[in-house]
Design goal:
The longest helix has about 50 residues, at about 75-125. The protein has helices at about 15-20, 40-45, 75-125, 135-145, 165-170, 195-200, 215-220, 235-245, 275-280, 285-290, 305-320, 330-335, 345-360, 365-375, 400-415, 425-430, 435-445, and strands spanning about 25, 50-60, 60-70, 155, 180-185, 200, 215, 225-230, 250, 260, 265-270, 295. The strands form 4 sheets. Strands 5-8-11-4-12 form a 5-stranded parallel beta sheet. A 3-stranded antiparallel beta sheet has the order 1-2-3, with helices on both faces. Helices cover about 45% and strands about 10% of the residues.
Amino acid sequence: MDGHFRRIPLGAQKVGQIGASGEPVLISNNLAESHWVARPDWARREGILSFAGQPLIYRGDTLGVLAVFSRAEITPSESDWLRIFADHAAIAIANARAYDEVERLRRQLELERDYLREEVKEVLAFGTIVGQSAALRGVLEQVELVAATDATALILGESGTGKELVAAAIHERSSRRDRPLVRVNCGSIPAELFESEFFGHVKGAFTGALRDRVGRFQHADGGTLFLDEIGEIPLAHQAKLLRVLQGGQFERVGDDRTRTVNVRLLAATNRDLRVEVAAGRFRQDLFYRISVFPLELPPLRQRREDIPALAHHFASRFAPQLNRPTVRLTNDDAALLMQYDWPGNVRELQNVMERAIILAKGSRLRLDLALAYGSVQPLASDPMTETPPASAPEKLIRSEELKDLERDSIIAALERAHRRVSGPGGAAALLGVNPNTLTSRMRSLGIKRKG
């Protein structure tokens, strides 16, 4: 497996000639004197007298060569028996390769299924691009322009502004729409798994590599690769990423075969990459490579006229999902929502609306409680000109009352989720909070699932 003849070029010496021509070779005796032998001294020393080689042929394709050296004379009849064995070996090899290919395709389908589930989860959790503000229309015009090309786009904006949705919109409007859109959250990949995650690995490449794995680049071949939070990639791995972006070539971990892919790159970050470059945390050449066409998404506070439409969109979608009656967003509700700064942007608005629907009394939204629960601070304003909102709460809510409301809300969510805290349809998902946060609040409020 690791000697001088572990690889033999087609057409070279006996084995290479058989592999190239698909015809058998038989040297019955005096092998050491034949021009075919590469090392006659070895043949004489070992007493090798003859050689027989048969091609491994399956459906017209030569898969390899079965070669035998012998210290006794190999007769034509024995060479014919070797032919029969070679035919059976070729079938076995072809079946093994077919099985491996079926396994590879199965794993690829499973991976694609997982990606699609992740994408569906993102879409269901975040909604669609909603709004008619001038700031949003400007972004969508840029999306239309860049989508028609294969240019790399860098999507900039604060967390929760909808960078994932813009990436999906670019992909869906491109010529690659029928191929996969593969999303990678760069901030969630451990540094030691970077190469395996992006480029894949072969079985046995490292401890725990129990089978071959297709990387994100290969899975996105022909389609689009969306690198979310690209500013989180460690500096040590940025050169490897740059190489595949420039040449489209990479090797799996533990493999010496170079693979080529055709991938369109979209990247996103909430960091100022120019500052990161100046600080030495991000490669300048990689920054120039990914920022061919920058798109900057406005924060929600800069597109306040879109807030009522977004709130109505979330209310219409969440009410049936949460088995709640249809709720109505009043003008006072819209005015109240438009007074806040929304540091979490559209994602925060989504969570507030979901929470408000859970707390709703009939068709009336409880935005006051939903906003208080999320600790959203109102915009700073001039006290001399400030006017109270039309939908201000009728009374102040004491801390004990707020805890009781929170406790009732959590219990209601647990009952609806059949006492499950995490997972799809769990109480944490219904309340729009992290499962660990909900567990901590339950302990604090003395709530036990068994009770």
